[in-house]
Structures are given as C-alpha cells and as structure tokens.
Amino acid sequence: MQKAIAEFIGTFTLVLFGCGAAVVAGPAIAAANTVGVLGIAFSFGLAIVAMAYAIGPISGCHVNPAVSLGALVAGRMSVGDFITYVIAQVLGAIVGALVLYLIMKGKAEGWDGGMGTNGWGPGYGGGYNVTSAFLFEVVATFIFLVVILGVTHKLVTHAFAGLAIGLTLTMIHIVGINITGTSVNPARSLGPALFVGGAALSQLWLFIVAPFIGAAIAGFVYRAGILYNGEH
Question: Where are its TM segments located (predicted)?
Fold first, then answer.
C-alpha cells in the first residue's frame, strides 16, 4: 500500500507541475509570462528529481507505466507489483490532471482549454507526422529506461540517480516538446487527454504503445546482460 500511495503522489506531482508549466506559463499564454520549452522541460525534470528523493526509497519512483514495464522485463519487479504500480500511476495522473483542470477553470480569460496533452500532425507543435512521433517516443523511452536501469544498477552508486534521471527527462523534453509534446509516459498522456478529448484521445494509442515498446527493449537489454553482466 505504501508503494501504491507513493506512486500515486509521484505521478500526481509530475502531471500537475509538468503539464501545469505547459498550461499556466507555456507558449499559449502572454509572452511576458512564458517559460518556453526550457522552462517546461525543466518543470518535468525537476518534478522527477524531487519525487526520486522523496518517494524513491519507498517505491523506486517509477511514476510511469513504461518505467514499470521496463523494470518488469528486466526482472526487477513482479507482475503483481507491476499491476499495482500501473493502477496507482494512472489514478495519480488523472487526479493531477483534474486538479490542473479545476485551477485553470478559475482563470477569467486567456485559457484555450489546453492541458499539456501529447499529439502530432498539422496544428500540433512542429507538425510532425505519425511516423516521426512514433519513432521519437520509442527511441526517447528506450534512452530514458537505459539511464534509469543503469543508474539504479547494483554496480552503480545511487546517490545521484534521481538527478541523472531528472536531467535525462529534461533533455528528452527539450527535443521532444515540438515533436509530440513529449510523453515517454502513458499515464502522463492519459490524464490530460481525458479532460481535453478530441484528437488528444484519438491519438492516445501512440503514447501507450510507443513508450511500452521502447521500455520493453531497454528491459530486455538489461535482462539479457547486453550492457551489464550478472545481477540486475
């Protein structure tokens, strides 16, 4: 139960403050208040850093179904724990999006209804097509999991693991925000999409399938001992 609560809080925080940066101070708001791509990227990254040190000792701070899948494939968690984690993460993302939605509903003007959703195609970001979006999400999630599984390996000192993981997510967002808004996290995509609907929901499949593929490949790489030999 402690692990589930930790994952709920961690994912809630990631969605509220990561997507919140995109909505409250993103490019759609008046120029004087924008934080830009770097600000949004760092908001997601810093949320992970904060939660890694806050709940990492309890649950490992996955806050992402793709991370949990990678850990499962790598042999680091059981199927039962995987299911528990995913349920907690999805609920945390939905509640985080709900709180953000309620906050934005209180804005008198200037809100276009956006919730920091992921997407692709004409009218979204740089207008990248589905192939570009899918490829980016697979590769970015793979790299993200390689870092996570690497810095938490038994052969590695873990003191700075949270910082490394958070900065990696920041790096991924800097490149990916203009392509897909950057998901690499099915729960993060699901929460906001439920409140926006439309294209955000119809395109949600990509932000579930692609991150799971990238994570599973990374998990296999570690399970097979391609990068590290011995225990995982």
Answer: 40-61, 82-104, 133-152, 159-180, 200-222
Question: Any residues with CB less than 8 A from the CB of 23 and at least 6 apart, and which?
Answer: 100, 104, 111, 114, 115, 116
**232 lies in a domain?**
no
What does the pLDDT look like over 137-173, one tens digit per residue? Answer: 999 999 999 999 989 887 776 778 889 999 999 999 9
Question: Could you give the C-alpha distances from 201 to 34, 65, 104, 116, in angstroms and in order?
Answer: 26, 18, 20, 13
46 within domain boundaries:
yes
Q: Which domain holds residue 108?
A: 2-223
In a domain, residue 18? The reply is yes
HEC string for 33-73:
HCCHHHHHHHHHHHHHHHHHHHHHHHHCCCCCHHHHHHHHH
Q: Is residue 230 part of a domain?
A: no
Q: What is the distance between the alpha carbons of residues 61 and 58, in angstroms, rounded to a whole number?
A: 8
Number of structural domains the chain divides into = 1
**86 near 207, Cβ under 8 Å?**
no
What single-letter amino acid sits at 189?
S
Instruction: Give the pair of three-digit tokens for residue 226.
Output: 């391609």
229 against 112, higher pLDDT: 112
Helices 130-151 and 65-73: crossing angle in degrees, nearest 10, is 60
The four Cα atoms 192, 11, 88, 65 give a dihedral, to 10 degrees, of: 80
Task: Specify the CATH number for the domain of residue 50.
Answer: 1.20.1080.10
197: left (phi over 0), alpha (psi -120 to 50) or beta: left
Q: Are the CB atoms for 188 and 19 separated by under 8 Å?
A: yes
